Amino acid sequence: MQFLMKKTEFPMSGYNYYVPGSPINGYGVAKVLDSGHPNFSAGDLIWGATGWEEYSLIQNPEKLFKIHHTDVPLSYYTGILGMPGITAYAGIFEVGSVKKGECVFISAASGAVGQLAGQYAKLLGCYVVGSAGSQEKVDLLKNKLGFDAAFNYKEVPDLDAALKRYFPEGIDFYFEQVGGKLFDAVLLNMKVHGRIAICGMISQYNIPEPEALKNLMHIAFKRLNIKGFTHRDHHHLYPKMLETVVPYIREKKVMYVEDIVEGLENGPQALVGLFSGRNFGKQIVALAHH
Amino acid sequence: MQFLMKKTEFPMSGYNYYVPGSPINGYGVAKVLDSGHPNFSAGDLIWGATGWEEYSLIQNPEKLFKIHHTDVPLSYYTGILGMPGITAYAGIFEVGSVKKGECVFISAASGAVGQLAGQYAKLLGCYVVGSAGSQEKVDLLKNKLGFDAAFNYKEVPDLDAALKRYFPEGIDFYFEQVGGKLFDAVLLNMKVHGRIAICGMISQYNIPEPEALKNLMHIAFKRLNIKGFTHRDHHHLYPKMLETVVPYIREKKVMYVEDIVEGLENGPQALVGLFSGRNFGKQIVALAHH
């Protein structure tokens, strides 16, 4: 068997509604077994949109990325050096144009994207606070990932009061991934002309009725600039990102926390766990090892 | 009595919560009776933040605008040549960067700001649809103000279906002033990379519980750019706006619909009427006539 390794992550929820029996896509790392495309040869390692399956037939390989740096864990290409990595990098450096000294709030801060966004903002010289959904995750943010502060947004009795405590002068930039009540409280605590980058609202994906937000008017009152974005529009940043982030990894200036489950049979449970926050760091399903 | 004329509009709802008995501010047109400030002399006409009162003592006159063009109705300086005028002008030309050929949707389209925003977008060569809250207002938009189409958002059984009919390829730019269900339906009908400028959400100001929005996630999915703004950050555009818009008025390229009630005693009712949409065009309270 020539197939050596394949890791697959969860599909893009919200974009696609999964219908049982239909093929399901995700971002994975794989080794090319055979190729009719001039850019790829047997033995190449790639990352990109593959399937939740052990072997994939990929008909549009133009969108795959070839892996060149193999002195880092290959699983990183589903995370810090893959799609979530582009999302975090683009969110902080391009969409948010975050600058030294700014006050930055990151939600879902221990997740695949948030842990990177927070570390990048710290490397820029910002004051960075993160929220997460368990004490264990909060400890990770404060003790391992270098956040200035962190709190468990599920346990805080008054989100507005908590944000006012962490940001007495308001938030310059909010990296939004959660939605609902947390987003609503953030709107009350943005500085005038603050910026928000939204790449997801995971709390709102799988609930029958979305939460009513009370504070959308503050978008006007505070003259906020809110940008929705996905990694898709920022793939041109990838070479620059590799140049910056691969040395960060080698020099241990950033770390990346992964939550790996073994075997495709454990994939569905790992996927569902994301919506209740059961994962600890980037959720990965390992199908085979290198 | 040297005081000749004063017109006052409603206060900035949402910004200030009015406490009965306290002074209440609004935007008005007035004649200077006496001045200790070198920039203003008795007899000057001004517009700016004054009070809901017949005579005002203004302690920070630096923020007042002097009126130079008096061949247009002076009431226009509470509207097309005043604060709502700057809002509409900035929203279309600066915040929205609206371009020829784009598909533009304006809510509260017959109001103080919306009627101008729509006409400016038409002058730029856009396809422009407006929504308003009565048949009379819809007729005004279609028959007098040159909108390509208009509909009564209170009577449409399915806002999403209506927007899909008017914008089969989606909306490039939405000028948001209403909020609630209308905003939610618009989010479903924006083009990818569409822009939204928000200067108000009047449907949400005076209700006990804001409406639950289901579609905020589309900010990320569609990579929307949403900017809150007020006229306050765009006063530098005023000279350029006058240069553009005063000739438009003289050449009847734009028209401006005003709803004038007489006497301060009718002010409260006129103010309250805004929240149910009773006004027809820009609401003005006339205290005296020139």
From TrEMBL, chains A, B:
Chain ranges of the Alcohol dehydrogenase-like C-terminal domain: 112-244
Superkingdom: Eukaryota
Signal sequence bounds: none
Any one GO molecular function term: 2-alkenal reductase [NAD(P)H] activity
Keywords linked to the UniProt accession: Oxidoreductase
InterPro entries for the chain: ADH-like_C, ADH_N_2, GroES-like_sf, MDR_fam, NAD(P)-bd_dom_sf
Start and end residues of each Oxidoreductase N-terminal domain: 15-66
Keyword Oxidoreductase in record: yes
Name of the protein described by the UniProt record: NADP-dependent oxidoreductase P2
Record organism: Cajanus cajan
